[in-house]
Design brief:
five-stranded mixed β-sheet, five-stranded parallel β-sheet, 17% strand, globular
């Protein structure tokens, strides 16, 4: 497995045995889900190749791409995109769809002024009011932008069919003959990490999709996840509070994606007072995400408490581990990657998605 799961406290044999027995039925159900079956059968590898032409067309014709998505779909897309760097020549990708803020839309319009803009609309279920508003507002903006540049409007739809699937976006795309990429019927919007909902924006930003899917599949098939992932899910399901933490901006959206299924996300050390208050409650499970190398480092001058080599990245790493492993308040696991790249992103998304599925199953 490309990532390590490091426990803050020793897990006693009784807890390990309880976790194994409790998670066994959940694992049986997990292996039946479409995302996992697609990973095992390498269907997601084939999907990425099918998406490549569309992703290249969007990248080549756009300076910026707006991704309109529902709350859960958008959280997963942001988690994956923030964990990788934008490739040179790739468009700026903005994910939205949950806001009704006029000031927020005005800021988007100002930032994208005079840029070639494309729209990717993602929906796994019936669209709520904020998503309907976002689709209407941003689609109109894309048409206005295209008219100004004398080009056809670029609108793409990624939608799920079925009784609980997309309504507004799927219908509008079909009526207007926009390119439609169909997700498996009744796709759960929480679990889209190896579907077109995440893969298409990931490719547009310039992520290495082959490495992402390879690492996703290796994690699914990893015996280490069977142990680390199930114990994390078991501890998560037993705790009254789920705390998801990172010290690196690359993983802020990943912790918020995790928290969107129930929990609290903190960006440290900014949220130290929030974390202290949560730790004081006692009955919690804490999951921290981090990598030894992020996207950037800053060399600092000498100051009291600085890293001996002058690396802000190394200082952050040492402080995060001191803070996380130095507390005895509740069970905690750190997910550690060597570097913040496409492979680590795929491994982390797989680990987290499967672990969330098991935890949610155990809570039913």
């Amino acid at each position: 497995m490309l990532i390590e799961a490091l426990s803050r406290q020793t897990i006693d044999p009784q807890t390990l045995d309880e976790a194994t027995r409790a998670c066994s039925p959940a694992l049986d159900e997990l292996w039946k889900t479409t995302p996992i079956r697609d990973s095992i059968a390498k269907n997601d590898v084939n999907l990425a190749e099918q998406l490549r032409g569309t992703a290249d067309a969007i990248r080549e014709s756009s300076d910026a791409v707006l991704v309109v998505a529902g709350r859960s779909e958008g959280a997963a897309i942001r988690a994956a995109l923030s964990a990788i760097e934008k490739k040179n020549g790739s468009p700026e990708v903005t994910v939205t769809g949950t806001s009704l803020s006029a000031a927020g839309y005005a800021a988007i319009f100002e930032r994208l002024h005079n840029k070639r803009v494309s729209l990717i609309a993602v929906s796994c279920s019936a669209e709520d009011l904020p998503l309907r508003a976002a689709y209407a507002i941003l689609k109109a903006y894309v048409f206005k932008s295209a008219k100004r540049e004398g080009a056809p409007a670029r609108v793409y739809a990624v939608v799920a069919d079925g009784p609980g699937g997309s309504r507004v976006i799927a219908r509008d795309a079909a009526e207007n003959e926009y390119p439609i990429i169909r997700l498996p019927e009744n796709t759960d919007p929480r679990f889209t990490a190896n579907t077109a909902a995440v893969l298409l924006p990931f490719m547009v930003k310039g992520g290495d999709v082959r490495e992402y899917i390879r690492a996703f599949g290796e994690t699914v098939a990893s015996p280490e996840w069977d142990g680390d992932g199930t114990i994390a899910a078991y501890l998560m399901s037993r705790a009254s509070v789920r705390l998801f933490e990172t010290w690196q901006a690359e993983y802020g959206d990943m912790t918020r994606w995790l928290a969107s299924s129930g929990g609290i996300a903190v960006m440290m050390p900014d949220d130290t007072p929030v974390k202290r208050e949560i730790l004081s409650r006692g009955d919690l499970f804490e999951l921290m995400i981090g990598s030894d190398e992020g996207h950037q480092d800053v060399m600092t001058p000498l100051f009291d408490g600085c890293d001996p080599d002058g690396s802000l990245e190394l200082l952050t790493l040492s402080e995060s581990e001191r803070d996380f492993f130095g507390t005895e308040a509740g069970q905690g696991i750190k997910l550690r990657a060597e570097r913040a790249d496409s492979a680590a992103c795929g491994a982390l998304m797989a680990f987290c998605q499967m672990t969330l599925y098991i935890a949610d199953y155990l809570e039913q």
